[in-house]
Amino acid sequence: MSTVALPSPGSLVNDPRWLAAGAGGFASAALAMWAFRGLPLGPALLWLSPMPLFLAGFGFGLPSLLGAVVVAALGLALLGGTIPVAVYAAAFAIPAMLVVATGLRQGRFTASVPMALLGAYPALCILVAEGLLADSGGLEVVLTALVKVGIDRMGMEASEALVADIVPVMAAAVGFWLSVAMLVNGIGAQRFLARRGLALVPNPGLATTRLPFAYPVLPAIALAAALLDGFGGTTLSLLIILLLPMLLRGLGVIHTRSRGRKGGGLMLGAIYVALAIFSLPTAIFLVGLALFDHFAARPARGTT
């Protein structure tokens, strides 16, 4: 009578890291491919496609995440070709790998560099797109054409004034959603695993996380470029997206200062309401608060 040989404990099929890599890769590719095929709820599922990658990374480490990315890329290449793979890699796979690689440190998650990546990575994508589209007139020309098509499809008149208002912030809007995908999926995956005792590290204290000390140099350079360019082209988008981590840091300061204080919840709610209604002045206030905390409060507390 023949017998079936069972896999040894050290084999790939018994290693939870590689099982997580395979499951995460297949799930992520399925979510992304659902969207690329234009199926119902596609956009929502597309933005959730990094979640299985983060689950593999925060639950089993960077090697498991890299395996999941390889599995997902192979699946997308077989079913969709090179364009879906390129979009998936740039929008979801590379950010997930960078967040896990720079955050996991000796049994804890250090969120300083990952928080900076919320601005730096989308800004880098904008610059790369600008270079790749140079022969087509640059990113601004391509975005102008896309905005006109979108306005026409909504049955509106694509006036020059309306297009001119949208194009300078269009790249920032795309970059913002990339950052949201990184932030929401990363936090969601970590908290899901932590509640079940499966996370490699405890939940990080995001409210107290400070940006790398040199980070404000990047938005300062973007501001100088925007001033020289008259806030045209994509320079305004670069400035906006690079200021996003500082805005988040400002919110973190408010969370920290309001914690445990009488009326703290009311103050926190008021800030979020103001951010929704009076977006620009409130955002400027939060960035200013982040700068003060970054340069003044940090030396006073002896932190780096």
From TrEMBL:
Question: Which residues are listed as membrane-spanning?
Answer: 18-39, 51-79, 85-104, 116-134, 166-188, 209-228, 234-254, 266-292
Keyword annotations for this protein, in alphabetical order, are: Membrane, Transmembrane, Transmembrane helix
Protein's recorded name: Uncharacterized protein
